[in-house]
Specification:
The protein is an alpha+beta fold and about 100 residues long. Helix content is about 40%, strand content about 30%. The chain is built from 3 helices and 4 strands. The C terminus is likely disordered.
């Protein structure tokens, strides 16, 4: 799956999980110091970042990126193409809901 297709699929999944809102691609999130692959802003103003990780990522980078969103009050959901990246995320602490962060609903 190409990276752009991952982002589209992730956006659709965020809307399915969290409900209708404004979906933006490659959105700058100033307070987290990041550019989210997908950013869903809900009617109540809460935001969920979606990160489509197409290439391998080390656990420390996954944790740092996740914490930057969480510290800014933004939930984050990761989607992985690479099975090694997915295994690293799972070993870091995947919850029963399928989320990889303490901010999951």
């Amino acid at each position: 799956m190409q990276h752009i297709e991952m982002k589209k699929a992730l956006a659709a999944k965020l809307v399915e999980l969290y409900g209708t809102g404004e979906v933006q691609f490659e959105s700058r999130v100033q307070e987290a110091g990041r550019i989210a692959d997908v950013l869903l802003t809900l009617p109540d103003g809460s935001r969920i970042a979606g990160e489509a990780q197409y290439s391998p990522i080390v656990t420390a980078a996954l944790q740092t990126r996740t914490m930057s969103y969480l510290d800014a009050g933004i939930e984050v959901i990761w989607a992985f193409e690479d099975s090694k990246a997915s295994r690293r995320a799972s070993s870091w602490g995947r919850s029963a809901s399928g989320c990889w962060s303490r901010g999951c609903r």
